[in-house]
Design a protein that fits this description.
Elements lengths: L16 H14 L3 E4 L4 H13 L3 E3 L7 E3 L13 E3 L16 H12 L7 E9 L8 E7 L2 H10 L1 E2 L1 H7 L6 E6 L20 E5 L4 E5 L4 H4 L2 H17 L2 E3 L1 E7 L5 E7 L6 H5 L9 E6 L3 E5 L5 E4 L4 E5 L9 H8 L4 E3 L2 E3 L4 E2 L10 E2 L5 E2 L1 H5 L10 E5 L16 E9 L9 E3 L3 H9 L2 E3 L11 E3 L12 H14 L7 E5 L19 H11 L6 E3 L2 E3 L14 H8 L3 H18 L5 H14 L1
Parallel strand pairs: 1-5, 3-18, 4-9, 6-8, 8-10, 13-24, 24-28
Antiparallel strand pairs: 2-3, 5-6, 5-7, 9-10, 11-15, 12-13, 12-14, 15-16, 16-24, 17-23, 18-23, 19-20, 19-21, 21-22, 25-28, 26-27, 29-30
Helix pairs in contact: 2-4, 11-12, 11-16, 15-16
This protein binds guanosine-5'-triphosphate, sulfopyruvate (SPV) and manganese (II) ion.
């Protein structure tokens, strides 16, 4: 190894050769002032949050213990899908739904960007583990970053530090994750609170299982254990090894007779996973406990059932709309402190506020760091960015299921797919069988949200809520889903359901009250599994009548529930050409079974 005179570089708490040589190589390329090997301790958290406060990036929140407010650059607020790349050797392996570049070309472009990109900054080396550290084969990663915000966020979102590097020993496999905000600090230049670069790249090399990210400090672009590793790289690994890496929450549902079912649900970004995962049921005697709110890794167990593990350690949740009525358990989790709030508004007395939260503070500092009054809100300027987020530890959640970090995972009884659709898609439908369920997932559609940059509201296909996260060809991904179902014992497979909390009446209001009331739909779902609930055959699946749902004590118009459940053949016929067009975009890798399912749907619609 070259003798580089960078302070801290040689203080490596490891003899792992591959790790050491990669860290040296990156230090040589990016030229930081100093290298810090992160140990994941409270002292490290205190030191770095202190540094972030001094830099003006963080503002402490006296009303919340050990919690901080943070505002990003206004142009760095969400995932950048058009700047996200899958650099497989063969373009066909990335498929039509991903941006592709030749890996060698991409490396050459990004190497030029990284050259000297950490000048004047500290380079942090963060050993982390996705999923329990006591797994048979822990899933290690190491993120190199020049952002203190990333380090402290990784403390919350993943298992980090000394215990990880010790467990890695001298030869464990790991995913190298390179991140730079791309804002070198030259002599005499003053830093900004949120350094970033106009040029952004979020890049994945699936064959090498490597991630390179440049230019952004935002969550999904910069906390590389999350979407980059646990979905894009992991989905590619899962295909090779016969498992699933999915954009799913995991919850535990207990009935009044203490019957337990675990449910996994895939909804696109900002479409209700965190809320469902922490749901407070409105029907007596039912209980929901949380195991995860964003990502599920699922493998078949010896008994043939599908077992889910949440690879994360924290919640990176959408703030707007979160309140004591919609998601009281998120509010309780945040009250315990130890949290980072990004792009929400700050009150004069040191608390946070966002649209949809209780109270109507008169004077706020908006996410744009400007004075804000309700008049600004009326003028269309929100106090919090629509994709503002809280970052908070899982173990503070009052309804966390005790088995949430069991390396064996939990056996899944039902998989839900759902999107945000104002029309057409009923409140709930059960798939006829696994392959039909895969078709429902593969054709899932949703209105775009603020979680990614671009136009909000436009309906797009978002297969299995994974459109931005499938690390390989989407057609091959559907085939992988179909194949797993074929290999498995049909009786042990989870049953698949399609839900839509977001259907609207002609006057534009939501037909279904949602949130805690979704427990009524969960109840019908598990009663279907146990053979205790009725459903009607429709063209799109098995749908309950309003009388099959438990609506006791619910103050809602019967006509609205019926409209929410309706399967309108006319509306669905209009969907057919859209599905056809979607399947055409996938290209030759689309499984023929998906065309068969489409033909069967067309026939049922007459
Ligand atoms: P990501 O973290 O981006 O993956 O999002 P998510 O799927 O976890 O979405 P989340 O639960 O944070 O919800 C996003 C938005 O949808 C919030 O503003 C919620 O208040 C709103 N929402 C969630 N569930 C419901 C529901 O049942 N009905 C309605 N109308 N809105 C909901
Ligand atoms: C999402 O966008 O689906 C999120 C937030 O969960 S991010 O970490 O930015 O991907
Ligand atoms: Mn998500």
């Amino acid at each position: 190894m070259t003798a580089l005179a960078i302070p801290g570089l040689d203080h490596a708490p490891t003899t792992h050769e591959r790790l050491l040589s990669w860290v040296h190589e990156v230090a040589e390329l990016t030229s930081p002032d100093e290298v810090v090997w992160c140990d994941g301790t409270q002292q490290e958290w205190d030191r770095l949050t202190g540094r972030l406060v001094d830099a003006g990036t963080f503002v402490p929140l006296p009303r919340r213990p050990n919690s901080f407010w943070c505002a990003s650059d206004p142009d760095d607020v969400a995932r950048v899908e058009e700047r996200t790349f899958i650099c497989s050797r063969d373009e066909a392996d990335a498929g039509a739904t991903n941006n592709w570049r030749d890996p060698a070309e991409m490396k050459s472009v990004m190497t030029d960007l990284y050259r000297g990109s950490m000048r004047g900054r500290t380079m942090y080396v963060i050993p982390f583990c996705m999923g329990p550290l006591d797994a048979d084969k822990p899933m290690f990663g190491v993120e190199i970053t020049d952002s203190e915000y990333v380090v402290v966020s990784m403390h919350i979102m993943t298992r980090v530090g000394r215990r990880v590097i010790d467990r890695m020993g001298s030869d464990a496999d790991f995913v190298p994750c390179l991140h730079s905000v791309g804002a070198p600090l030259d002599e005499g230049v003053e830093d900004v609170p949120w350094p970033c670069n106009e040029t952004k790249y979020i890049t994945h090399f699936p064959e090498e299982k490597t991630i390179w990210s440049f230019g952004s400090g935002y969550g999904g672009n910069a906390l590389l254990g999350k979407k980059c590793y646990s979905l894009r790289i992991a989905s590619s690994l899962a295909r090779e090894e016969g498992w699933l890496a999915e954009h799913m929450l995991i919850l535990k549902l207990t009935s009044p007779t203490d019957k337990v079912h675990y449910v996994a649900a895939a909804f696109p970004s900002a479409c209700g996973k965190t809320n469902l995962a922490m749901l407070e049921p409105t029907i007596p005697g039912w209980r929901v406990e949380t195991l995860g709110d964003d990502i599920a890794w699922m493998r078949f167990g010896k008994d043939g059932r599908l077992y889910a593990v949440n690879p994360e350690n924290g919640f990176f949740g959408v703030a707007p709309g979160t309140n004591w009525k919609t998601n009281p358990n998120a509010m309780r989790t945040l009250e315990r402190g130890n949290s980072i709030f990004t792009n929400v508004a700050r009150t004069a007395d040191g608390d946070v506020w966002w649209e949809g939260m209780e109270g109507s503070p008169e004077n706020l500092t908006s996410w744009k760091r400007q004075d804000w009054t309700p008049a600004d809100g009326e003028a269309g300027e929100p106090a919090a960015h629509p994709n503002s987020r809280y970052c908070t530890p899982m173990n503070q959640c009052p309804v966390l299921a005790p088995e949430w970090d069991d390396p064996q995972g939990v056996p899944i009884s039902a998989i839900l797919f759902g999107g945000r659709r104002a029309t057409t898609v009923p409140l709930v439908a059960q798939a006829r069988d696994w392959q039909h369920g895969v078709f429902l997932g593969a054709t899932l559609s949703s209105e775009k949200t603020a979680a990614a940059t671009g136009a909000v509201g436009q309906v797009r296909r978002d297969p299995m809520a994974m459109l931005p996260f499938i690390g390989y060809n989407a057609g091959d991904y559907f085939q992988h889903w179909v194949d797993l179902g074929k290999q498995a014992d049909a009786g042990a497979l989870p049953s698949i359901f399609y839900v839509n909390w977001f259907r609207r009446g002609e006057d534009g209001r939501f037909l279904w009250p949602g949130f805690g009331e979704n427990s009524r739909v969960l109840k019908w779902i598990v009663e279907r599994l146990d053979g205790d609930a009725t459903a009607a055959e429709t063209a799109v699946g098995l749908v309950p009548g309003a009388d099959a749902l438990d609506l006791s004590g619910l103050d809602v118009r019967q006509a609205d529930v019926e409209a929410a459940l309706a399967v309108d053949a006319e509306e669905w016929r209009a969907e057919l050409p859209l599905i056809e067009e979607w399947f055409d975009t996938i290209g030759p890798a689309l499984p023929s079974t998906m065309r068969d399912e489409l033909a069967a749907l067309r026939q049922r619609l007459g």
